[in-house]
Amino acid sequence: MPKTRQQKEEQVIRLTEQLQAAKSVVFADYKGLTMSQLSQLRNQLSEVGGKLSVTKNNLLKISLQSTNYQLPTTLYEGPIATLIASDDEIAPIKVLVKALKDFQIGKVKAGILEGEVLDEYKLVQLANLPTKDELRAKVVGSLGAPLYGIVGVLQANIRNLVYALDQVRIMRGGE
Fold this sequence. Notes:
It comes from Candidatus Daviesbacteria bacterium GW2011_GWB1_36_5. By secondary structure, this protein is α+β, with helices and mostly antiparallel strands.
């Protein structure tokens, strides 16, 4: 059953609010995905704080006009799935790009991150970046490496002193 004008207006208002509150937004071509693949993708995205929705292009265009984002007109060609990330900006993008690559169907078209419009190339680059936890682990490892080196050097000096004293003891005939 077709939606009434009032339902469409409510959907535009809801979508506009979600777009304005989002930390990042990605628009993807999902053509060719089965319902089970789409459902699986939605579940994976919800685990990392993302929400994937399919909206009519005209309603999406109206919502985007009210948010003042300048997106390419080619965005509205074909079916569009909208990923809205509310918690982590990058994790849902990583999941979406990986899933589309695994399914070998669809692609990301454009996105918005901190008010900047991103093309497909930049979105794929973002998806290939390490996560926040991986970066934190690298920083901690980098900070800890010199400390481990100092501990090793200090232990070596003490170990050498023990070996020298042991040799002196053996030379003097002690056991």
